[in-house]
Every structure is written in C-alpha cells, then in structure tokens.
Amino acid sequence: MSNTNELTVILNEIVHKYIKEYFNVYVPKAQYSEKPAVVINKDLVSEVVPKKVNKEIFAIDGSSRSITSAGGIISISTIASSSSSFPIYGVYPSLFGMRSLDLDKPFIALAPSAYSKGSLNPYLYSSKYVTTVSLDGTPFQSTQEPERIETELRAILETEGLKKLKGKGLVLVDGPLFPSYTFLPEKAKKIIIKRRIEIIDDNYIGVVKRLDKSDLLIKTLSNNPELISRYRVDPRGFLSDEAFLYQLVRFNFNPPYPIISVGPLLKEVDDKVKIYVNYLIFPLHKYLPKFSILRVESLNREAVAYISSLKFTTEGIPSILALADKASKELSAGIMRYIVFSIEKIGLQESFKGKFEVLNVV
Q1: Phi and psi of 326, rounded to 5°?
Q2: Is 33 a residue whose pLDDT tops 50?
Q3: What percent of the chain has pLDDT over 90?
Q4: What is the pTM of this model?
C-alpha cells in the first residue's frame, strides 16, 4: 500500500464488500493489574547525567478510533514511526504518499450488533486489511466496548511495528514495553505478550507519559519506612505516582532543578524476562516547579540517561515521540472521516436507525 489512491480503493472495497454486507452480547472484561515491582537498591533517588545516543533513534506510536451505532462497531487503528533522520519514517496504512511500514496486518475491525444470519460467516469476512475475529478465535461483537476491539487491533499493529524497527537503532515505544492489556481476554493477551518477548531487546525503551492514574511506584514503596524518613514524603498519602513524585522533588530539591531519576524498580514480565522501571523527572524550567514526569522501561539501566539527552516539547514529551503521536492521530482521523463519508454516501446510515457517534480513543 503505497499511495492515497490505492488506500481509497481499499477503503471503498471494505465499505461495500465487508461493512455493507456484514452488518445486516456483552463479554465481561477480564481485569488485570500490573505485576508488583521490587526495589533493588536503597539509593532510589539520584541525579541523571544525560548520555548521548550514538545511533539512529526511532519512535513508534499508535492511534485508534471507532464508530458505534445500533448496527455495530467499526474500529480502526494506525501506527506511525519517526526517527532522528526523518520526521515521519513510516506509517501504516500509508496515505498521502507517506512511506509505508508494510505490516500486512488488518487495520480495521468489524463487530456487528448481532450474529449475522444465513450464509454470512464472520470468519469469511476477514481479509488482509479487515478482521472480524479476535486473536482468541471468537468473533468481535458490538456488545463489547469499543476499547476492547481497539486495544487488540492497535496492540497487534504496534507489536508488528516494533518488529519492523528491530536492529535499526534505539526504539522508543509510546507506553509500557509490556502493557497489561486490561481489556483483552487472557488468550489474546498471552499471544501478544509472547510476540513482544520475542522482539524486544536492549534497544527498546518504553516511555509512559500519563502517570496520573498509575500507582505502581506508590504501591511498591508503601512499606518502606526508611524512604519515608529519608525523603519526608509518605507514598501512602497519594493517589498516583505523578502526585507523589511531584511532591518528592518539591520537598527535597531546590532550584535550579536537576534531572532526577527515581528507581530502578525491577518488574517481572515472565520467568525469563524482567525489566527495569525508572521514573524520570525532567525540569521544563530550571527555576520554576514545572516538570515532565515519565516512566521509563527497558532491559538495561541506561535508558533514563538516553531519554534525558533528547529534545523535549513544551508539553514535556520527547520531540521524536511527539511526532509519531501526531502522525498516527492525524492518519486515523483522516481514515475515519473517509469511512464515515463513504457509509453515509451509500445510505447505510439509515439501516442503523440513528446517527453515528465517532469516538476518539487515542
């Protein structure tokens, strides 16, 4: 898939051949929490000396969106990669002549409101670009929340994108190296995690940007009286890692603020794979208490020094990662607009007896 005309042809075929024909029961969400981490040394808080990366740097991010209606769910997912040499290294699916990552994996998932009747078989309505079936072998259903379908679709594309970049340089991943995949059934989750274990090595770094709902650090440190006494901040008094880290810096450091690392913690993925988890507090201003607080995951201890050497945006995100994030969101928005336009054009909206709602889950 190399150009815009080719993609529009594919989308038109998907709308007419798959969505129009295929669209004519709630599955409980499995709950997963992060595995606990362990503290591996007493000196948790340290100042970071940035370390220059002497190789090409890549970043990869994904975006997903859904249309929901009485007739079913159409979910799409896109990924984009940027690099230190090219603002956009590659995308999938390709549009506007952008270089393709050529993943050859479905980027659209369909979930009808009920099982189709007659000769319509969900297993026959999957193709190179469309899937109607989960990794665990069960058909998608619209009674599942869109996040469930989007999570699986995006996880597959992002994991295959990581494989495409293997051996090319240092790769930044937007999010954990091994996400918990809360919305996925156990079998699908195990398949994706196993695939990631096969791919990820020392050249991959996970960067978690949103810590306002994360509590891994405060859970790990909650029974550490020595830390509480030393740094005068009790993690048990906070609801999130972000809030705890912000106060930790305020109570223990004065301007000009240095780059600070909290960790490493050691987190087990399975019996053979363990990752280092560090929390990077990067000052966006040397004299004002404005920080970028990131969770950095890797298979080695140098990831924090590498990340701290990169250029950051004013929002506190490594610029190379922000480029991939922006590209993937714009690509998914463009594809979704085209699908909505095409569906309305053929009058399929009337069969759903209502207006579509476009959900932006990115």
Answers
A1: -65, -45
A2: yes
A3: 62
A4: 0.87
Q: Is 65 helix (H, G, I), strand (E, B) or coil?
A: strand
Residue 25 has pLDDT above 90, yes or no: no
Which of 6, 354, 41, 73 lies closest to 226 in space, CA to CA?
41
List, for residues 184-214, the tens digit of each pLDDT value.
Answer: 999 999 999 999 999 999 999 999 998 998 9
CA distance readout (Å), 89 to 54, 60, 93, 161, 321: 18, 9, 13, 12, 12
CA 98 to chain centre: 21
Distance of CA 291 to the CA centre of its chain: 22
The half-sphere exposure of 340 on its side-chain side, counting CA atoms within 13 A, is 18
> Tokens 């997912």 appear where?
77
67: region left, alpha or beta (phi > 0 left; psi from -120 to 50 alpha): beta
- Identify whether the C-beta of residue 56 lies closer than 8 Å to the C-beta of residue 170: yes
The CB density around residue 149, as the number of other CB atoms within 10 Å, is: 27
Q: How far apart are CA 121 and CA 101, in angstroms?
A: 30
Alpha-carbon gap, residue 349 to 359, rounded angstroms: 16
Under 8 Å between Cβ of 35 and 271: no
- Tell me the Ramachandran region of residue 51: left when phi exceeds 0, alpha when psi lies from -120 to 50, beta otherwise: beta
End-to-end CA distance of the chain: 23
Q: pLDDT at residue 309 above 50?
A: yes
Helix (H, G, I), strand (E, B) or coil at 11: helix
